[in-house]
Design goal:
single chain; globular; NAD-dependent protein-lysine depropionylase activity; EC 2.3.1.286; DHS-like_NAD/FAD-binding_dom; alpha/beta; DNA damage; 4-stranded antiparallel β-sheet
Length: 400
Amino acid sequence: MAAGGLSRSERKAAERVRRLREEQQRERLRQVSRILRKAAAERSAEEGRLLAESEDLVTELQGRSRRREGLKRRQEEVCDDPEELRRKVRELAGAVRNAKYLVVYTGAGISTAASIPDYRGPNGVWTLLQKGRSVSAADLSEAEPTLTHMSIARLHEQKLVQHVVSQNCDGLHLRSGLPRTAISELHGNMYIEVCTACTPNREYVRVFDVTERTALHRHQTGRACHKCGAQLRDTIVHFGERGTLGQPLNWEAATQAASKADTILCLGSSLKVLKKYPRLWCMTKPPSRRPKLYIVNLQWTPKDDWAALKLHGKCDDVMQLLMDELGLEIPPYSRWQDPIFSLATPLRAGEEGSHSRKSLCRSREEPPPGDRGSPLSSAPVLGGWFGRGCAKRTKRKKVL
């Protein structure tokens, strides 16, 4: 035994005492928790005495309960009543008319009408995965721009919207007719693969989902650059990754737009990710000089307290009312006019078998281009980007 130290047997005894005290504390915590779940009138005198002697545990458990309830409320979807929603839309329409530089931030909520699940809604990708349930979706190539996508394209055409910053990878903004210079797809585009060996990077727009073979930290698509022969990569930024590509992320334009904006309209985004990008919120400016913020979402967002107006409604419903209020017609989506077909680079001979995803075609009756000899999977599929990065964030529940 070292001088002044404890012997091995004394250390073991001290460890046993420590563990016993911890177990007694856990048992007391469980007892107090069970009592607190009872109505006050149903508690015995002995249980009342135990609560009185355990004020610190009662305070801790009540605090936990309040936090759980708060988180639960934040996940609930709330809808404004029709009259309240119309009143708010009139106010939003005034803001759109008066804005000198309006930027729109969009999230997964604008694509749910296209049968693409969001992430944090009641049936969202993360919500289901965190509950241990499987995630499925229709073939994403069947998705088409929604009323909201087409409304935004129209607002940009009318010079009421100057730039769109999107978290979505579904490519629907591009397919709605928005010019590429007017879009910053911060998390990539499922239809675009790039060669990073070429300077500047060479882009290949495809008419199929290029992410079939890609995943978190694994981005090569299996096809090669037509110019230099280097491996192509997708453009997706997964959760936990940092986007480094110039396009289609277009961070430079997003940052410039945010710095010029006097009004920001957030549509269908939980803002839990976007809030982490300080350059999108002009946080270096004094509060009085920051853009006015308008949010359309059914759930709580971390920017609600900063908003000039929060509209609790579905994006398509709000945008229909807004376009009516502005007196603007919403152009219908037409596959025959979808810009992706003029932007797309066709596969070369020998590349037709490089994917098994269904390709877009101008007409649903038209055979997909380049796929006549390539077998297509008939089962619903998910892009390599869809829902990836969620599992690493799943937390185990604490057991009392």
